[in-house]
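Reading a protein record of the kind used here takes little practice once its layout is understood. The reader may check this reading against the record printed directly beneath this paragraph.
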Amino acid sequence: MGKRDRNAVRTAYVTLRDLPGTRVMFWVVDECPYCGERHFHPAGNLRTADPSEKLGEQPAMCDPTRTYDLLLPPRPKKKTGKPERRKERRAGKLDDWDDEKW
């Protein structure tokens, strides 16, 4: 395996939060890939700004010479197998009423 490039842009997953009592929104990096701390990046006004414009490559708050890529966390995969479970339940209901089991 090759060595990891230390100058490469790292990914930081963010959540959007607003400041209570104001109209200011922030992108919150819960765990910085460089220092492990929590950072806040302003996302704009609650009514007029589009917060997704602030996503992308941003300077890190702990070290402005380094940058990270602000991204939304990946969505969880949908569970599969609902039709199979439904068939099993229906088959189980039919088996319960057999005369042989009484």
Q: What stands out?
A: Residues 82-96 form the longest helix (15 residues).
